[in-house]
């Protein structure tokens, strides 16, 4: 169908139409004009230049000859590529890797492909995803931690540089269509508003299509969804069975089928990244019911059960030891009956979420299996972007945002709401003990990059056309940065030197494609550093030096940089990091510590920063910097909290000019936050009302004594903050046309973040602040909403 440049040159030489000495000149100046060429020097610049016109142009079409420019096409035989990346799944959770949660579809994929038991992530989500997308270490891609915690240092801005362009652009510029479904935590939250900029949105990073959310998490029943760059609402409600996991799976299947309907021979690239199983753990009832009573034995026994099963199925070596239990966690047997009851319920819900996710991904895998080129489809399934999370705290929670604001619910309060676990309106998260158990046999968990509990995740790879050693295990030490080079090799593409005119940093990852066909190929990765929140490790030739610095549930307990204790593990012999041999091999420890310093300097890891929530308040780029006066109009919806007026810990007022008619006055004027916390100025049964949701523990309605009059009217909220620090109380006054119509008192207010929802005028999208609005979308007209922040 296409005639490549080298084929043209060959024909000319064979026909002796050109002297051989002109071959080199023609190759150097002409080959970049040809689209779809692979393996030539001009592939080092993307996108390709427009091809020259090789037809003939006469005075009229009759004495002219057409020459259509050729389309960019991938290399003949290039596979479809599907990368699946789950969230917050520990090494020892799925049945495929010895866990107690049945994952039959992952089992089936592994049976047709390979399981990797020494694959590593960065230990936290956004950093891992940046490393996968760019093929560079996370600090090298300016993604040393989470966007919300970013700082103005090169390794921590969360602004993926143009010099580390994501794989999606390379693939797109080489002729494959690309799509991203689910979680995007690689766009800084201050850039996720309708004002952009959009360069670091998925569609700006080389994806033709995006359907998902721009944050670390979203409410799975009431998600904050974008299609490309436009906000969209689910077509059904939670009461009708809506769940984002099923929705995004449907969209992914539909996209893939449409692509193959139009061009069945053209390979595609899909990045499928569910919010599952990150908190909030929103699990349909039928799935959590499957695990009733299955975890009553507790987290200590669960570690032993998983460890024994992992040995039995060979996912860990026969001589691997179970790492010591974490001394920060109470033994299960020491807990009260009520504690055991509540914690077991949270784990049943967490396990159900994983099982439900496997079911939905099973639908995607079935659809892939029905493709006309299913045999030539490479699936790379990364089971978690880090280890299982311990961010639910020592006691677990039903309101994750409340916990992240540093406010813990009592056990009694949680048990009163036990029936709500996993339901719409809840935001459950398991306690630390269960998070650690899900990382069996390794120590520690998510965020703790010093140990494999944070950084070692299961990976399954399937490619029926290539992988013949089906159901086998691979044990080469690999890292998520190695995925991009592997995909490039599999598709016959090269990492270009320039993309969009920007010189690219060298690739940090290396291809592990050789492991697809050979079990015992040498390791490509003999050295790898790790760092998250000053938790550090260095792997080198079978040894790991490790310094555990912060605790995910209490980062304020960091020891300080002057009191660091390093550990040493000989992981070539000690698979699970069960024995610290630092005292036996002090020289080896010092060698690895020095090597860590070299890697840190090389990849812009410094400065180390062990601050906790303080980093949320570090000044960041902002579209609203220093503004105290705001005017919004109808249509201002889905604004992230970072570009909305910061009404926390200060006095402020809001005045809305609205126009209504009799019988059509209800609905939301302005709202921010969601079911976890937030506020809404709304009209109910004709009465303006200001509702403040303080983490569901206290929902205060300040209701007008008078109905909203017909026609144009002004509704004003005067929020008088007590001062004296974050989270203090406030007096709230409500006015209609400058007449005071209500007054109320808040004894406490939200100190840090309202949560995972957004700011909007005229409607409360996503998870609602109020469970039962009489009407959500405002029935009248909103001329403008003015908000003034006071010192």
TrEMBL record:
InterPro entries: Alkaline_phosphatase_core_sf, ConA-like_dom_sf, Sulfatase, Sulfatase_N. Residues 79-493 form the Sulfatase N-terminal domain. PANTHER family: ARYLSULFATASE FAMILY MEMBER, BLL2667 PROTEIN. Belongs to the sulfatase family. This is Arylsulfatase. It comes from Echinicola rosea.
